[in-house]
């Protein structure tokens, strides 16, 4: 893993070292805690910063037969790290092998190979580094050359930590909220009425109807906008198109608030109405709408009862009908309420469908008004990134792509941007070497710099923090 890692042509090396390397980072979708950034937390050891909350690593360890006490249980931190090191040493072909070693190099200066034999050496080195100046949460962000971060926030969140960070002139990074209203939409969940009660309290109004729900969310959207929010994010099973009359939606909402769970048809109708209402809000505010879909969550009922959600038991789903995605966007366009939108499917079989849908709704309001989002979650590995970018290039406009995000809960995940940029340069370099594109390095460098940073800054209308 030398300076030319993944760069298999002279063209790729030139593009990476002269255009991508050193570019700042915009992490427009992540799950970092704004509270932890504000408090500038420090970690006692590498297990806490590396394995805590990281279900990528948890899944790998479970796949290798590691007992759960070393994964999410109460085993000592050093023993957890040693187990991960042992598994990583044999994780051939898994992106964690690349990511983990990039992180060890970039943050801790370790250029060896982490495995069972070297675990003690790395444990001592990393833990010593973590006690140094510049290895707190903020220090790790600054060290990674991050300029803008968007966290993931519920409509009822107070955004108090974002307020404090915005006012802190000592921290040169913009930390913005991103609107994630899934709990307000998912009326099939058992705790939905309790969530609506929380929303009522936060919005300062009663929610007795779907119309009231939209008004309460409008209040909170204004609040988020006042805190610099520029984008939303939705986690969907699929992008649904199920239009229904307003009085039918009101009846579905009333039934749910009276304890009657919706059937699949009613659920789809309600969620379509909800998404259409939110899209209209985003269009009015010039926000970006992100749609993440194609995931089946919490598949193991035993572990879900024991550990809850987001612990590594989700999978790719194949139930996303592209016709409904296109119809949803078409209905918004006809209503004049289609915002800039990024589509992410967890199923790589959807790549071509997404990239052809994009072309139906592009115009001169933005470069890549509708985007095919970066290879996501189970796909943010070498093959997944290559497939996503090549599909976008073949069927759309790769030069307008807004690029990589971490989608992570870890302050050590930023080398994934480097990983992505190396793969981007590898693809472009191969096309040059094979004669698919001329040796026009001025244009190619501009494309690389734009996908690495500039496109996202323009697309989201971000501004770097002024100190």
User: What is the arithmetic mean of pLDDT?
Assistant: 97
Name given to the CATH homologous superfamily of the largest domain: Metal-dependent hydrolases
Number of strands: 9
Shape: globular
Question: Radius of gyration from the CA trace?
Answer: 23 Å
Examine the secondary-structure arrangement and name the CATH architecture of the largest domain.
Alpha-Beta Barrel
Question: Might you state the CATH topology name of the largest domain?
Answer: TIM Barrel
Distance between the termini: 36 Å
- The domain tally reads 2
Structural class: alpha/beta
Largest sheet: 4 strands, parallel
Q: Which runs of at least 5 residues are low in confidence (pLDDT < 50)? A: none
Number of helices: 20
CATH hierarchy class name of the largest domain: Alpha Beta
Share in helix: 40-55%
What string gives the helices and strands in order?
HEHHHHHHHEHEHHHEHHEEHEHEHEHHH
Strand residue percentage: 5-15%
What order do the strands of the largest sheet run in, or round the barrel if closed? 4-5-8-9
Protein name: Glucuronate isomerase
Keywords: Isomerase
Organism: Aristaeella lactis
How would you describe what is shown here?
49% of the residues lie in helices and 7% in strands. By secondary structure, the chain is α/β, with parallel strands linked by helices. The strands form three sheets. Strands 4-5-8-9 form a four-stranded parallel β-sheet, with helices on one face. α17 links the parallel β8 and β9 (370-372). It is globular, with a radius of gyration of 23 Å. The model has no long low-confidence stretch (mean pLDDT 97). This is Glucuronate isomerase. Keywords: Isomerase.
